[in-house]
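Why do we bother with holo predictions? Because pocket geometry can differ from the apo form. Keep that in mind while you read this record for flavin-adenine dinucleotide.
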Amino acid sequence: MISCEFFPPRTEAGVEKLLATQQALDVTVKPAYYSVTFGAGGTTRDRTLEVVKLLLANGDNIVPHISCIGSSKQQISDLLQQYISLGVDRLVTLRGDIPEDGDNTGELSYASELVSFIRETTGNHFKIEVAAYPEYHPESVTPQSDFEHFKQKVDSGADGAITQYFYNIDAYKRFIDNCLAENISIPITPGIMPITNYESLARFSDACGAEIPRWIRKQLEAYADDKDSLHAFGLDVTTNLCNQLLELGAPGLHFYTLNQTDATTAIWKNLTV
Ligand code: FAD
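The structure, written out:
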């Protein structure tokens, strides 16, 4: 199953572009669903809902992300009811990043608590996806405790997981082995970040704890002034990764599209599995 992730644009022009991206991907990739990320705080939260409504108009399955950082139970409940009334039946359920000022006014502290809350208040209405970190979450104390916390999300009622992106397939293999050893059988879909810009990828990877292997980093650095070669190399690396993942039995691919059409479509066209 292929899914594609969008973020809510900040401008009207960005929204127009996103709707064009949706239409283009509908023609080529035809994903099972589009997910829409969620920002903590009032205005970004509202933007997710607005964008979900706009994307639904095309008749596609739309899957909002929802996080508990900065939200009261009442706010979460209200949002869940709005999604139910819109016909949404799947969510990507997260804790969210703690704001830089450290101010977490939410009533729920971890994604596992949010999963439990959604199950308690809406039963089995939603299919729930949670985040998984084959290279460990940046705040995790030990790999073991991070995996235990992942297991808590599954035990709380998650139906599936989407991973943080990675370029080292061994990390994913190991994560799947750990799941099998713990009798975790939910689908763990690899998150795929297309490579189109070295600086922003490096910055983002540092923040989220995803490793860019040295052989990839060095080549991307060398192509800094040669966009065509960088794109071609990035496409080759991510295509190989995707094909290997599918050969390995990955249940699908979740593309972090960054609201762009071309990179995701190019990888999808190169899939051989
Ligand atoms: P959790 O699973 O709660 O884990 C967070 C940290 O707390 C981990 O280090 C974990 O080991 C630890 N932990 C968990 N439970 C406990 C416990 N009981 N006791 C002690 N420690 C514990 N962010 C957004 O803001 N909006 C989005 O839309 C968004 N979408 C994402 C989609 C995907 C597929 C992924 C992989 C990430 C996404 N993120 C998003 C980023 C995510 O919100 C951050 O990585 C965040 O820091 C952690 O969220 P989580 O749901 O993984 O948290």
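Residues 37-39, 65, 67, 92, 94-97, 110-112, 131, 137, 139-140, 145-146, 149, 153, 162, 164, 191 surround flavin-adenine dinucleotide (CB under 6 Å).
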